[in-house]
From TrEMBL:
<dbReference type="InterPro" id="IPR018294">
    <property type="entry name" value="ISPD_synthase_CS"/>
</dbReference>
<comment type="function">
    <text>Catalyzes the formation of 4-diphosphocytidyl-2-C-methyl-D-erythritol from CTP and 2-C-methyl-D-erythritol 4-phosphate (MEP).</text>
</comment>
<dbReference type="InterPro" id="IPR001228">
    <property type="entry name" value="IspD"/>
</dbReference>
<comment type="similarity">
    <text>Belongs to the IspD/TarI cytidylyltransferase family. IspD subfamily.</text>
</comment>
<feature type="site" description="Transition state stabilizer">
    <location>
        <position position="22"/>
    </location>
</feature>
<feature type="site" description="Positions MEP for the nucleophilic attack">
    <location>
        <position position="219"/>
    </location>
</feature>
<dbReference type="GO" id="GO:0019288">
    <property type="term" value="P:isopentenyl diphosphate biosynthetic process, methylerythritol 4-phosphate pathway"/>
</dbReference>
<dbReference type="InterPro" id="IPR034683">
    <property type="entry name" value="IspD/TarI"/>
</dbReference>
<comment type="pathway">
    <text>Isoprenoid biosynthesis; isopentenyl diphosphate biosynthesis via DXP pathway; isopentenyl diphosphate from 1-deoxy-D-xylulose 5-phosphate: step 2/6.</text>
</comment>
<keyword id="KW-0548">Nucleotidyltransferase</keyword>
<dbReference type="GO" id="GO:0050518">
    <property type="term" value="F:2-C-methyl-D-erythritol 4-phosphate cytidylyltransferase activity"/>
</dbReference>
<keyword id="KW-0808">Transferase</keyword>
<protein>
    <recommendedName>
        <fullName>2-C-methyl-D-erythritol 4-phosphate cytidylyltransferase</fullName>
        <ecNumber>2.7.7.60</ecNumber>
    </recommendedName>
</protein>
<dbReference type="Pfam" id="PF01128">
    <property type="entry name" value="IspD"/>
</dbReference>
<dbReference type="InterPro" id="IPR029044">
    <property type="entry name" value="Nucleotide-diphossugar_trans"/>
</dbReference>
<feature type="site" description="Positions MEP for the nucleophilic attack">
    <location>
        <position position="158"/>
    </location>
</feature>
<dbReference type="InterPro" id="IPR050088">
    <property type="entry name" value="IspD/TarI_cytidylyltransf_bact"/>
</dbReference>
Length: 238
């Protein structure tokens, strides 16, 4: 049983607005791709990491990854072009994994400080349960439903709500079948594009379990997140 990890890094990073795709932005001197790849290639047991990037940046990505390909490593690395939507990028990544990867972790490059312990927690739970597993954190703020003008309608009970993160883990066949189904079955009228893989699996009728998430798995979305991630990084010490 070896891991396949799909690192999705093919988004345009429009909300960050850094003038380049987010995954290629540096946090304290190192790109998000490098930070994620270092953590993933430190995981015990080895496997295959495929990094999904905008096609024109494939060469640059290989150069960034060269530092993680040493002869003694249990990890193989590859780069593959992404799609227009996140779920397309994931699908291309899963298709690029070798046969032996029977458990797949899908991770956003935009979560550069995610600790190795979270990857291990998710992978262990997938193996234990043979189900899909995602990291989740309780929602701490009071939640309100508002109308288009921002007028409050009501407070929403937050007890049954969680905020979810990546890496999300899946038995490989289950994830591949769910993505195939998404591609072949027309979505219900008004259905949005799925924003995570757990949603893809649920649309195919699969059960998704949760494990505790990590504050360090925070996603870089807007410029304010850069400040927050730098603070989290500095709080970790040298
Ligand atoms: N992603 C991807 N392919 C896409 C869209 C997103 O690989 N077509 C990846 C992003 O690179 C990111 C992760 O999915 O690591 C989460 O997506 P998001 O935070 O939305 O990143 P972007 O799409 O790059 O940002 P934005 O939506 O602001 O343009
Ligand atoms: Mg996006």
């Amino acid at each position: 049983a070896r891991l396949g990890v799909v690192l999705v890094a093919a988004g345009r990073g429009e909300r960050l607005g850094a003038g380049k795709p987010k995954a290629f932005v540096e946090l304290a001197g190192e790109t998000l791709i490098e930070r994620c790849a270092r953590t993933i290639t430190s995981l015990p047991g080895g496997g295959h990491l495929v990094v999904v990037v905008p096609e024109e940046l494939a060469g640059e990505t290989l150069a960034l990854l060269a530092q993680f390909t040493d002869a003694g490593s249990l990890w193989e690395l590859s780069v593959t072009p992404g799609g227009r939507e996140r779920h397309e990028s994931v699908r291309f990544g899963v298709d690029a994994l070798p046969e032996y990867a029977d458990v797949v972790l899908v991770h956003d490059a935009a979560r550069p400080l995610t600790p190795a312990a979270l990857f291990e927690r998710v992978a262990t739970e997938v193996r234990r349960t043979a189900a899909s597993v995602i990291p989740a954190l309780p929602v701490v703020d009071t939640l309100k439903r508002v109308d288009a003008n921002g007028v409050v309608h009501e407070t929403v009970d937050r007890a049954p709500l969680v905020a979810v993160q990546t890496p999300q883990g899946f038995p490989r066949e289950l994830l591949a079948a769910a993505h195939d189904r998404l591609g072949s079955v027309s979505a219900p009228v008004g259905a949005e594009q799925p924003t995570d893989d757990a949603e893809v699996v649920q649309r195919a009728g699969g059960t998704v379990l949760t494990v505790p998430g990590e504050a360090l798995a925070h996603k870089l979305t807007t410029p304010g997140d850069l400040t927050l991630l730098l603070a989290l990084l500095n709080a970790q010490g040298p």
